[in-house]
Amino acid sequence: MWQELGIALCLVLVLEGILPFLYPRRWRMAVAHIAQLPERRLRMMGLASMLLGTALLYLLH
């Protein structure tokens, strides 16, 4: 199980690095925009992301 968790973490890092590598200026602007969002909206976005990821894992597994 620990090996799969390590693989998943590595894939997250690769995926997270794609946008800053390909579009650094746009990525910087997006991060600045996200930093200005209200905390409640950020929490809802995080919750939606976790639920979507969990649902996709369930469907794929």
Automatic annotation (TrEMBL):
Top-level taxonomic group: Bacteria
Protein name as catalogued: DUF2065 domain-containing protein
A UniProt-annotated Pfam family: DUF2065
Regions crossing the membrane: 6-23, 44-60
PANTHER family for this protein: INNER MEMBRANE PROTEIN, INNER MEMBRANE PROTEIN-RELATED
Keywords recorded for this protein, A-Z: Membrane, Transmembrane, Transmembrane helix
